[in-house]
């Protein structure tokens, strides 16, 4: 089940207003063009901002997410009718012969066990055409981003049309590396309602991710610094080799 942040309808409705800086998506949009991708499978598409952005540019886009409430928001956006929306797990990606599979934001870190992560990578490989690419970002665990996940550092108030003022903050709950757990809290001024969403992320280092990609049958082409968070995140660009012989992972 998805975190309440994405699955609870009231929180899904305000997600875009709270997470209003998506300049990171410009980097991914540029990568879509750089890699010559026309068919894009957006894994963990959430409220569909990136999928709709690409669809508006004429790309064929499939957006998949396990949070029904987020997909409901996504379906109401401009260009949403040009996207194929799927509710489901990343381990069950359709074999669509995609040019590119993407996981933006923290999506690649929500798969907590090695088994689940490997299943997602294998599913992504199957969903790609030969020579297709997988692109995702992860936070560098050496930078200990969680040290800044405090109420003092994160508290803000946002006035949302039709909703009113919402106060929100993030608090660290537990650090048991490689797992880090935290809670988002939202207080609605209109009726005093308080909603919380608990999350856990897996922090894998660069070497671990590179090895997992190799085991899943990918060729790691490049690891870049994330332009929107320089020095804090890695952007992995991997490729499914164009080999006529399918590995056992494909059977």
In percent, how much strand structure appears in the residues? Answer: 25-35%
CATH topology of the largest domain: Rossmann fold
CATH superfamily of the largest domain: Vaccinia Virus protein VP39
Low-confidence stretches: none
From N to C, what is the helix and strand string? HHHEHEHEEHEHEEEEHEE
Supply the helix-strand structural class.
alpha/beta
Fill in the keyword field for this structure.
Rossmann fold, 7-stranded mixed sheet, globular
Please write out the topology:
Blueprint: H1 4-7, H2 9-18, H3 24-34, E1 39-43, H4 49-56, E2 60-65, H5 68-74, E3 83-87, E4 98-103, H6 114-127, E5 128-139, H7 151-154, E6 156-160, E7 164-176, E8 179-188, E9 194-202, H8 206-215, E10 219-225, E11 233-239
Parallel strand pairs: 1-2, 1-4, 2-3, 4-5
Antiparallel strand pairs: 5-11, 6-7, 7-8, 8-9, 10-11
Tell me briefly what this model is:
It is built from eight helices and eleven strands.
Describe the structure.
It is a single chain. 34% of the residues are buried. The chain folds into two domains: 175 residues, Rossmann fold (3-Layer(aba) Sandwich); 60 residues. The mean pLDDT is 94. The protein has eight helices and eleven strands. Helix 5 links the parallel strand 2 and strand 3. The chain has 251 residues and is of the alpha/beta class. The chain is globular, with a radius of gyration of 18 Å.
